[in-house]
Amino acid sequence: MHRHSRPTGASRPILARVMLPLVVAAGIGTVAAASPRAEAQITFSRTARADPASQETIAEFPVGESGGLEPRKGTAWKVHYARGLHKGLYITGAWYRRNLEEDWIKILGEVRVAELFVPYHHSSYIRYFDLTGFSFPMAQVREEDAGATGMLLPPFPGDSYPTVVREVRDRGVVWKDYAHGVRRGRELVIWGALEAGNYMYLMSYGFHDDGAVSLRLGSTGQNLPGHRGEAHMHNTHWRIDMDLIDGRRNSAMVMRHVEDPAGPGAEDLEEPFNRGFEGGIDWDPREFTMVRIASDRKNGRGDTIAYDLHPLRMGSSRHKEEFTRHDFWVTRAHPERPLENIFSNLPNMVKDEETIELADIVLWATSSAHHEPRDEDGKPGSGPKFWPGDDAWEGSALVMWSGYDLRPRNLFDRTPFYPYTPGPQVAAGAGGTPAATDEPRRSSARSSGPEAVPADERPR
């Protein structure tokens, strides 16, 4: 079974990709033959290649851009990004400033797509691992990709063309009240496209002015030749290494909302993820399941600084593969292990059941887009034929998005960008230590790297 790309120009070669039920074992995979009945198999070994060096982009969000009377001068993000084989576009670090006069706070370590798993519903032998199973490249981006307000970021070292777009977008109303009117938000977005045979996968990372982060995967392109009308899943498996403030002392928690069917009451529960050990859990729409990554730091009001992972989803995708049996997994970070970064190896990674409290941990999460083909995806017989038996398909499936939002909890002591009446500073924080505050702080030396917030200090 072959999966073909559609040429976009006369000189572009046709790409093919074979069906790949990946079997991970000591870095070796197995590719099934094209026919489901064929007994022959092809083995491959993956050759390690160094990714190009990370690049940096910085965006500041001055208060004046959105109006208001807030005395602080704005916020900022500093983002390191890279592209790699079997990774696509990914984040290698992100730091945030709650005030343009303060030091950087570490928010993210490495965040990326760990796998793109595409199983078909009726042709059960078609199960693509679009990220790790093939050596698909990042697509070239052009001025029309960037739009009126975006820009093309410079090519990575060794690349002959740009593959990443940078945009600063309006993200709509973030608060509105009677006293002070309204404030609109802004976000820095960097995105690129993985050219996966007949599909394009848009990998997008958004960094909001209020400290939130959005992770999005968009599926677009042409439906599978020979299976144009067959429904399938686009499962995006994310690997999220938060490294919040001091990434060596993060904990994973689960938030559940439980309704009382016998009465009007309800309760919101916070409990350790999988009892505080490595493992996987399921998303329950009735409980609004949410995973929280908490640091060991507190803000000026004595509340724990954390980030909540909010799913943007309609359902959960379950398949015969064991790594699809849960929606969320948490593991200890073990970069020295050769298979540590492979999503399909998760069931083996959690067998040790190491503690995930006050540790360097990694959150794995799945977002799925169910593609039920429709006429808007395209039309056969209207385009040129490029090979014998080609159905002359013309058109492209409109983008189907899935993903998550990472929203800060207690990172600020109060509503960001709100024009508060000037008042006294918050007193000492918990335990008599200096309070973390989002008020302006001047420093004679401004740090620009990951050590901007020492481990023995509270974030300012």
UniProtKB/TrEMBL annotation:
Modification after translation, per record: Topaquinone (TPQ) is generated by copper-dependent autoxidation of a specific tyrosyl residue.
Reported cofactor(s): Cu cation
EC number: 1.4.3.-
Compositional bias (Low complexity): 423-437
Region (Disordered): 369-388, 420-460
The organism's place on the tree of life at top rank: Bacteria
Biased composition (Basic and acidic residues): 369-379
GO biological process, one term: amine metabolic process
List of residues that carry 2',4',5'-topaquinone: 199
Record text on cofactor binding: Contains 1 topaquinone per subunit.
Stored InterPro entries: Cu_amine_oxidase, Cu_amine_oxidase_C, Cu_amine_oxidase_C_sf
Keywords: Copper, Metal-binding, Oxidoreductase, TPQ
Copper amine oxidase catalytic domain boundaries: 226-377
GO CC annotations on file: plasma membrane
EC class: oxidoreductase
GO MF annotations in UniProt: copper ion binding; primary methylamine oxidase activity; quinone binding
Family note: Belongs to the copper/topaquinone oxidase family.
Name of this protein: Amine oxidase
Source species of the chain: Aquisphaera giovannonii
Gene name, Swiss-Prot/TrEMBL: tynA
